[in-house]
Amino acid sequence: MKKTFLFLVLSVLSVSINSQTIFGKWNSINEETEKIDSVIEVYEDNGKAYAKIIEITDKTKEKNLCELCKDENKNKPILGMNILTGLEKNGNEWSGGNILDPRSGKIYKCYIKLINKNKLKIRGYMGFSLFGKTAYWERSK
């Protein structure tokens, strides 16, 4: 009986801890239409956070290329592209990496922070974080 109770308590704790993570699938919302634009998967590799576009909701844009990119992403498919690279955990946020805006081809410094288990804050900026833009992603179901 005690073992069963302990197992249940540990299972519940494990589920609630795992849901408090930046990793997983997130919906990127279009500011103008307020609809889901794409699904982004945030994943960990060697202790750093990365994110790639795994779904584009407008099927007519699924084959779009990053024509405005100036780096190795130039003319590569946006679907499957890494847009967040090299973020390291720093307290309660992940920073020190970059975010790519495939619409403009521009790369910005960024940090991300989990607001709650279903909301992720992404801040992209040039120079200082005061001069930038904030977006919020919602956890994909």
From TrEMBL:
Ranges where the DUF2147 domain occurs: 24-139
Pfam families: DUF2147
Gene3D superfamilies: 2.40.128.520
Lineage: superkingdom: Bacteria
PANTHER family referenced in this protein's UniProt entry, alphabetically: BLL5882 PROTEIN, BLR1215 PROTEIN
Protein name listed in UniProt: DUF2147 domain-containing protein
Organism for this UniProt entry: Polaribacter marinus
Highest classification ranks of the organism: Bacteria, Pseudomonadati, Bacteroidota, Flavobacteriia, Flavobacteriales
